[in-house]
Amino acid sequence: MKNSGKIFSLLIIIVFLVACSGGQQKSNSESDKTTAIPESKLQIVYFHNQKRCVTCNAVEENAKLLIEENYKIQIADGTMSFTSLNIEDETNQKIIEKYLVSYSTLLIINKFTGEEVVEDLTDMAFQYARNEPDKFKELLKTEIDKNLK
């Protein structure tokens, strides 16, 4: 039974990679451009392709909704930010290279200690955001709350 869970998770990841990949290589001159992630101590960043599947959209929509509903004060005072970035947009290339992103990815970037601590929540997001959005929101909220302490 344990192996079937691992196989299922692996299949989800493979389907995700096939359905959501397709980023293109950019020339060096294009990668000199950059879009800024708002400066905050806790950054939630969702990277996506131009063409997105239903699950890709569900990750962004549910993450944004959770953050808007539960973290208004942190957003307003600049402690926390949520950003969605298109990985095919040439202005995002430096950020994409910095975080080694090549497909849809959900990151929590914690800067409270002065150093960046990056947590990749992509697997969890793609496992739950579409079919179990409440569980996705619960798990994301738990991770955000741990990082705000």
Detailed description of the structure:
This protein has about 150 residues and is of the alpha+beta class. It has a single domain (about 1-25, about 35-149), classed as Glutaredoxin, CATH 3.40.30.10. It has seven helices and four strands. The chain has helices spanning about 1-20, 30, 55-70, 70-75, 95-100, 120-130, 135-149; strands spanning about 40-50, 80-85, 105-110, 115-120. Strands 2-1-3-4 form a four-stranded mixed β-sheet. β3 and β4 form a beta hairpin. α3 (about 55-70) crosses α7 (about 135-149) and α6 packs antiparallel against α7. The chain is globular, with a radius of gyration of 16 Å. The chain starts with a helix and ends with a helix. Mean pLDDT is about 85; it is low at about 20-35.
Which key features would you list for this structure?
149 residues; alpha+beta; Glutaredoxin; four-stranded mixed beta sheet; 16% strand
Summarize this entry quickly.
Helices cover 50% and strands 16% of the residues. It is of the alpha+beta class and 149 residues long. Helix 6 (122-128) runs antiparallel to helix 7.
Summarize the SSE layout with pairings.
Elements: H1 2-20, H2 28-31, E1 42-48, H3 54-70, H4 72-76, E2 80-86, H5 93-98, E3 105-110, E4 117-120, H6 122-128, H7 133-148
Parallel strand pairs: 1-2
Antiparallel strand pairs: 1-3, 3-4
